[in-house]
């Protein structure tokens, strides 16, 4: 059941939109657009837990992201670290082109990737 939602958008050629909701106590961050050095700050803000709450859990739905550069990789690593040691960050719906990049840099063993948000939420 969805608890809250908010929308953030950035204008310009590098448009990125981030929709944040809460489903059964898990933050779901839905991202649409390209993630690069111009837009990565918005993603960083969305993936960083609001406070030092132990056990914070977040699913980042990247199904609407066709491109991610090293700035996005760094944001995912920082997001993963911000959820440690008792919480987690999971990725859902990662497109093949972005997934290939994540695999090349060795991020997929660190941050679990799921085919859909539902799959990421159901995994225990």
Automatic annotation (TrEMBL):
Domain STAS per the UniProt entry, residue ranges: 16-124
CDD domains according to UniProt: STAS_anti-anti-sigma_factors
NCBIfam families linked: ant_ant_sig
Protein family per UniProt: Belongs to the anti-sigma-factor antagonist family.
Name used for this protein in its record: Anti-sigma factor antagonist
